[in-house]
Prior knowledge:
Layout: H1 2-11, H2 14-59, H3 63-73, H4 76-81, E1 85-89, E2 94-102, E3 114-122
Antiparallel strand pairs: 1-2, 2-3
Amino acid sequence: MKLRAQRRDRDRGQAGIELVSWTPLLLFVGLLVIQLGLGVFAAQQAGTAARAAARAQSDQRNDVWFERAARESLSDFLEKDNGARITRSGWGDEVTVTVRVKVPSVVPGISFGDAEKSATMPRD
């Protein structure tokens, strides 16, 4: 009985120490998952904006419509933080629009680059 009591006293606090040692790793993995989600979200939004802008430009000859369509299809979360760069190419039978948005960062001061997507539509 005395041996068991000594072992229990020696193990006291082990769970707390294990929790403290695993917490930074779990937080780091959680931040990585969130950052990955933000990257996928930015790429999806860039693709949606590129398709909307290409569709608008293929229907209209006015140069203002494609940029407005791209900006309106972007989430406010991406548009307010950083201006999307929207470029157009192709003046023949088809038009290509490329949208580049900055991937938001979970950790301030660390940049994760840009998400860039292009869409091509035939002119009407």
